[in-house]
Amino acid sequence: MLFRSLDHAESGAVYNLCSGVSRPIQSALDGLLELSGINVDIQVDPDRMRPSEVAEVRGSHDAFTEKTGWTLEKSFQTLLENLLDDWRSRLRAEGITS
């Protein structure tokens, strides 16, 4: 559906493809750790924290949806599952296994 949608998009325009829902990065980390089945100790290094961190970032797919009719089809959970599966495949292809 995405590639068919591009036929209706404006050439050269910039579009966001997103859920429109803001999530803390912690939710992605927690989800990936749960899917991986491993336990790790996460420690925040205060020296690496940016003092000007933006509290919330949320994308809007409204412009792309308006031009193409595109709608979100996959959940955040599915995105995390696909991401983890992809990296596992890449590591196996490199001969790296756990």
Q: What does the main sheet amount to? A: none
Number of helices: 4
Beta-strand segment tally:
0
Shape: extended
Protein topology:
Elements: H1 2-5, H2 25-36, H3 62-68, H4 76-93
Helix pairs in contact: 2-4
Offer a concise description of the structure:
The protein is an all-alpha fold and 98 residues long. The chain has helices spanning 2-5, 25-36, 62-68, 76-93.
Keywords:
98 residues; mainly alpha
Task: Walk me through the structure.
- The protein is mostly helical.
- It contains four helices and no strands.
- It starts with a helix and ends in a 5-residue tail after the last helix.
